[in-house]
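This part of the workshop introduces the protein records we will be handling. To make this concrete, we reproduce a full record directly below:
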Amino acid sequence: MASFLRTSIRPFRQVLDRRFLLPCCSVRWKSTVAQAKDSYSEINDELKREFQEIVGEKNVSSALVVREQHGKDESHHTCQPADLVVWPENKEQVSQIAKLCNDQCIPLIPFGSGTGLEGGVVAKKGGVSVDVTKMNEILDFNPDDFDVTVQAGVSRLQLNNYVKDSGLWFPVDPGADASLGGMASTSASGTNAVRYGTMRENVMNLEVVLADGRIINTAGEGRRTRKTSAGYNLTNLFVGSEGTLGIITKVTLKLYGIPESTASGVSSFPDVKSAVDAVVEILQCGLPMARIEFLDEVQIDACNKFSGLNYPVTPTLFLEFQGSENSVKEQAAVAADVIEGNGGSKFQWATELEERNKLWKARHNAWYADMALRPGCKGVSTDVCVPISRLPEIIVETKADIAASNITGKCLTPIVGHVGDGNFHCFIPIKPGDEGELQTVRDFTMRLSRRALAMGGTCTGEHGIGNGKQAMLPEEIGPTGLSVMKDIKSLLDPNWIMNPGKVFL
């Protein structure tokens, strides 16, 4: 009876909130959140059986080890397991799960591959972790139209293996073999973003299950056009929403032709400023670069040790050129002139596929290389992004900040970044449980984020707000923008069951 009254009265109370409270977004939002925090339900045996009826007994687990696997990602954030893990196999099951959770006010946390870096999958309020990895079918491949529709659990490498024989590929590459639903949810990016854009530019349509179980197609069911002016851009509302507005179950993506010719090059520089100045000048030349990655001397040393390389331990650029054979040569020649003018070394070329894969695998393994600098550590990753012209200034200032604060006691704080689009990371290995060191790192990341904001940048270029950057969102978006975001959240998820405790403080 108490449960019935709670679920019945809640919507009425929300109507009263909207009609009779002061017309202040923050007041209304605080009231809604207070209700949600006080009324989240625990999962008892009866509710567990209801989930088993939806997805089958084999697709429900309350085992601690399983819940802990789903209560953490690759970040340093403390594991917080959900009360239950479920594996739906289709959108109808996801819809039924959402309806049940909404009726009972149980938190819902979408889970893909668990490769995030901001604690986006930790279950801060308990509830149900919805693992979409069994929804891994490629549904509709249209090579003539350069697009594909997949279920949310399909991984990036799985998709590219499927389409490669057609001469197409999906270029958004965050490094990890992440699920495409998760990549859309976090607006993932990566080394190819300078040429092909992020997930935000490459998602054409989404199928999303809302908190109350309704299923929507953000661009209309079956729509896969390259552009549209039909109403609000619902697709990009959900791209980057980090599971706080709904559960992505299907993604329609743009594909691209595999380039005729590809060549990668490595060049070393005497100092950080020379390397980053070269990046800015290369971009100002209008070269259609495929990738430009910066690694400082700490990062290149870590990559050398971890991946068996032997590059000079100085600030380094990894570059990639794509196009026809002649255009690649022309691009490389112009870039080489710029690099030489900034004191860089001659290119060490990697033209064969095996050589290039080794080079870029070393770059993608940078996170693990950095963690190996301090065995047994956990990693903190920053990912600020600034306008290209401010890139040399912020990286030089950040290097000085690292040296002055001596963050880890050994100055083991590598800088690596997708500098072609103004995005870079500091990967900081810290001792688990060392609160003093963690606080030092938090202070540093706040300074770095504010430094980026002061230069017209953002506190996160690709990792998302998640559980780690909530304090910076109000400073970046401003009070009015933040209140509108909260209004959207309250409209689509009035009980605040979708990934609660994320994005907003």
Notes: Residues 1-37 have pLDDT under 50 and may be disordered. The first strand starts at residue 60 and ends at 61. The two ends are 33 Å apart (CA to CA). The first helix runs from residue 2 to 20.
